[in-house]
From TrEMBL:
The lineage of its organism: Bacteria, Pseudomonadati, Pseudomonadota, Alphaproteobacteria, Rhodobacterales. Residues 23-361 form the Leucine-binding protein domain. Gene3D superfamilies: 3.40.50.2300. The keyword Signal applies. Belongs to the leucine-binding protein family. This is Amino acid/amide ABC transporter substrate-binding protein (HAAT family). Residues 1-21 form the signal peptide. It comes from Aliiruegeria haliotis. Pfam families: Peripla_BP_6. InterPro entries: BCAA_transport, Leu-bd, Peripla_BP_I.
Length: 390
């Protein structure tokens, strides 16, 4: 089944890659390295988004679409070089990517130098559409503030005390900064921040510092973990029995493989970007049906994001009726389009895609080998006031 699915996608891409093609899109992303699973999902989603938005033709405005791939290897200098190559040598119309926030920050000035659009998907750091932003950057992925506000709403409240554990780079630090700001509005208190290297696998020392900071505090206490990639901090810290200090673990959503660890924490609450059973709309229905038919598995976290980026690119090209950058920017500022998550909208001021997030509670089901994020409440565009940070 998977072999046939791969052949089906390859056939579509071959059609898109015909010699007569006039529109080239570069996917510049970390194909190799610890985020490889995220990258694969993002690429499949991008392909399926273009397929969906073009009705399966791979054409827009009478021109064929070609997708070329560039591997950043999750290294900022390589990501920068790959984007320069895409814009300069390959003369792409626009680019999509990358996976890592650190790589994205290195790539942003390249888009400005070449005056070409970069659709950021799925890198999350606020600074991408904040202090490091330029007019050529659009982001379909959620930002740290959207993650933070939705998670603060899910776990915050009067009398709640929170500690955080995050990776010590842009994704983690931007995420905690935004979470801290959002948490204050709920009446909760942030008591301790803990940052560790991205490749940490032993969380004993970090957990002991967190427990020491929290043990004498009265009332409801939570540890919010913001993490990308391996290491399994949630499982390892849970094995240290934080409940003896009255501390409950919380985290946001993740890919299906990572949700296996959520089975250990039934009832855990947080907020997620996507889970395939939550959104109720025609685009998600198509994605779930087609992904199951082709891959015998449901679409995952970053598949939905890649699809949103692919649809956005096609809709922008349709609306602009042109491949000229200024025409595309004019078309994309304020543009609304349909995605697996429902309607998204590029905010004109910073080109951040406004979108729903989902407050969930983990439910354990006998026939599912991971903790299922069951919807508590959809947090719509109108429910979240996302700061403009540039």
């Amino acid at each position: 089944m998977k072999r046939l699915a791969t052949a089906s996608v390859a056939a579509l891409m071959a059609c898109m890659g015909a010699a007569s093609a006039d529109i080239t899109i570069a996917h510049v992303y970390g194909k190799t390295g610890p985020f490889e699973a995220y990258a694969k999902q993002s690429h499949v989603g991008l392909q399926m988004g273009i397929e969906y938005a073009t009705g399966g033709t791979g054409e827009v405005n009478g021109e064929k679409i070609v997708i070329i791939e560039k591997d950043t290897q999750l290294k900022p200098d390589i990501g920068k070089a790959m984007l320069e190559e895409a814009y300069g040598d390959d003369e792409v119309t626009l680019a999509v990517g990358p996976v890592s926030s650190g790589v994205a920050l290195a790539m942003l000035p390249v888009a400005e130098e070449y005056e070409k659009i970069l659709i950021v998907e799925p890198a999350v750091a606020d600074s991408i559409t904040g202090e490091n932003w330029n007019r050529y950057i659009f982001r379909t992925g959620r930002n740290s503030s959207q993650d933070a506000i939705s998670n603060a709403v899910a776990i915050g409240g009067e009398g709640v005390t929170v500690a955080t554990l995050a990776q010590d780079y842009a994704f983690g630090r931007d995420g905690v900064a935004a979470f801290k700001e959002a948490l204050e509005a709920t009446g909760a208190t942030l008591a301790h921040e803990e940052y560790v290297p991205t490749d940490t696998t032993d969380f004993t020392a970090a957990a002991e510092r967190i427990f020491t900071a929290m043990k004498d505090i009265e009332g409801e206490k939570k540890l919010w973990i913001i993490w990308a990639g391996g290491g399994n901090p949630m499982g390892k810290i849970n094995a240290m029995d934080p409940s003896r200090f009255g501390v409950e673990i919380s985290t946001g959503g993740n890919i299906l493989a990572a949700l296996k660890g959520y089975r250990e924490l039934p009832g855990m609450e947080g907020a997620t970007y996507y889970y395939y059973e939550i959104p109720d709309n025609a685009v998600n229905d198509w994605l779930v049906k087609e992904h199951m038919a082709r891959f015998d598995t449901p679409p995952d976290f970053f598949t939905a994001g890649g699809m949103a980026a692919g649809i956005a690119a096609v809709e922008a090209l349709k609306k602009a009726g042109s491949t000229e950058t200024d025409d595309l920017i004019a078309a994309m500022e304020g543009m609304e389009w349909e995605t697996p998550k429902g309607t998204m909208k590029f905010r004109a001021e910073d080109h951040q895609a406004l979108q729903s997030m989902y407050h969930f509670k983990t439910v354990v089901k006998d026939d599912v080998d991971y903790g299922v994020p069951e919807l508590v409440r959809e947090l719509t565009i109108e429910d979240m006031e996302i700061p403009i940070r540039n």
